[in-house]
Write a structure and sequence with these properties.
Structural class: mainly beta
CATH class of the largest domain: Mainly Beta
Order of helices and strands: HEEEEEEEEEEEEEEEEEEEEEEEEEEEE
Number of helices: 1
Distance between the termini: 34 Å
Mean pLDDT: 91
CATH architecture of the largest domain: Sandwich
Number of domains: 2
Radius of gyration: 26 Å
Largest sheet: 11 strands, mixed
CATH topology of the largest domain: Jelly Rolls
């Protein structure tokens, strides 16, 4: 929120007692505290001082009294700071001498569990954490993740393709993130594919929760960054696949697949969800039904991708914005699914042509699941 410049105190005092008060008088206060912006467990405070001052005092109301919380420096007539949220809502204000800002109310801190603050469901109750990895260690937690060592990505019949290997140059954890990389290999390696393939000069990283964790319905979220480029050849995915312990799976795509998001380097501004659940895959991509092509997600920066999955709907979000709502109620989505994160070489019009930068890495900040 942009705070309008306040009128200097001398002008406010010069108003005649009989003069009419402007309708926007609050905007002309000599001291303004903007509506706080809540981020996680804190509230970001910003404000404007239209008088000579080197600091403002932030106060919290306790009963009938106002108590000092902290002093904040004023620079160029502006100030900013942040306050932790408490278990109860709290009223705050900014003070300079006898000038008082309009009080603001900070909301109560949301209850927390292993995933952090618990998001609200549509019915007003809160989600409960069932899976969380913030990759705080120095190695992949193999009680949660299994490296993929079968299959390939790219054009294994007509062009460059990468095979998946359990290799520290392709799968690593450091700096609070999981790093999945695709790179050139020397010498070429044999693929452990279901269908025998020739050795390839490219390797890639992928992890899943195969036989370690699966869930039917809930809230699924990952935050990650892809390599910044608009050259074709790179594809990243945060997706769910049916748990084979649920029974024999029908042929794909009838068995189901939930691509919460796929990102393609040829389309550097998009995050694309895709749902697979009919024998003919709905005849292909149908925006608004099984996919969406207008979800903004720039490459080279962190974006948050979320799925809210119930017995009657699947809704995909990019950075909190709803991108796709499917209410088919298809039986393909009535079983447990595992989690998958993939860095791959692309196919089709996003095939690798040698121009996209390699190595390329998908940096995953966290993965959280609630029910």
């Amino acid at each position: 929120m942009r705070v309008r410049d306040a009128v200097p105190v001398i002008l406010v005092l010069a108003l005649s007692p009989c003069a009419p008060v402007p309708a926007d008088a609050a905007a002309h206060r000599p001291l303004v505290l903007a509506q706080p912006a809540v981020k996680g467990e804190h509230a970001q405070l910003t404000g404007r001082v239209a008088m000579k001052a080197t600091k403002v005092v932030i106060q919290r109301k306790a009963g009938k009294r106002w108590k000092k919380v902290r002093a904040v420096k004023v620079r160029h007539h502006s100030f900013k700071t942040k306050l932790p949220l408490l278990d109860q809502p709290q009223k705050i204000r900014a003070v300079v001498g006898k000038a008082r800002s309009k009080p603001r109310t900070l909301p109560a801190l949301a209850p927390s569990d292993a995933c952090g603050p618990q998001p609200l469901k549509a019915d007003g109750t809160r989600w409960s954490c069932t899976f969380n990895d913030d990759f705080a260690g120095s190695a992949l937690d193999r009680t949660k993740w299994v490296p993929q060592t079968i299959f390939s990505s790219g054009n294994f019949l007509v062009g460059p393709y990468a095979c998946y290997y359990d290799d520290p140059s392709l799968i690593s954890v450091s700096g609070g993130a999981l790093h999945l990389t695709v790179r050139g290999l020397a010498p070429p390696r044999q693929c452990m594919e279901v269908v025998p393939l020739l050795p390839t000069s490219y390797g890639a990283g992928m992890v899943s929760t195969y036989h370690l964790f699966s869930q039917q319905y809930g809230r699924f979220e990952a935050r990650f960054r892809t390599t910044r480029t608009d050259k074709p050849g790179l594809q990243e995915s945060w997706w769910l696949w049916p748990d084979d312990r649920e029974g024999i799976l029908a042929s794909w795509p009838l068995a189901g697949e939930i691509d919460i998001v796929e990102t393609y380097s040829k389309y550097p501004g998009l995050g694309i969800p895709f749902l697979h659940y009919t024998g003919n895959d709905n005849g292909g991509p149908v925006p608004g039904l099984n996919t969406s092509w207008d979800c903004e997600a720039r490459r080279g920066v962190f974006n948050t991708y979320t799925l809210v999955w119930t017995a009657t709907s699947l809704e995909a979000f990019v950075n909190g914005e709803s991108c796709l709502l499917n209410t088919s109620g298809n039986t393909a989505f009535m079983k447990k699914y595992i989690l998958n994160l993939t860095q791959a070489l692309g196919t089709g019009d996003n095939s690798y042509t040698g121009t996209a930068p390699l190595p390329a890495t998908m940096d995953v900040d966290y993965v959280k699941v609630w029910q």
